[in-house]
Amino acid sequence: LAPADLRYSQSNERPFPIKTESRAWSRYTEAFPQTWHIRATTASAEEEQILAVMDAYDAGEGPAVQAVGPVDAEGALAASIECDGHTETVLFRDGAAASASAAGIETDARVASVGRNADGAVIRWLLSDGTRLAVDGVEVFSADARCDAAAQIACLLYTSPSPRDRTRSRM
Asked: Rounded CA gap, 20 and 157, in Å?
């Protein structure tokens, strides 16, 4: 998934202490350290694409992500992320491409993600900077202008007859 010479570093240290308006050193950096940041570096390349997946979790619970893998795509860099009984497919459209497609997803968005449950049903989707998203040939979103949009799909299961349906009227 990664170039052979890819290196990571992480830190929450500031490169230098903060100076106040009077140019005095501030102890603020000791009380409030810099937020954690990760840097990925590789040898210079004409075109390099990196997709990083971060899984923040409680050490007692263990990681939620079970697997990450590349997905064959046209006009995009795409990956599949398996976690907690569902799969997320994420596409990052190449800047030069007008549209992108992978794993049944078609879009003109810069970024798109589709989550599916274990049965393959769509449970959520997201697009950023796009006008169209189709999943398995069905258009799930369309807009006149580029925008960001997302949906979480809830399913309410109703079985009939319910106890209320079986109760006879006493007229």
From this structure: 60
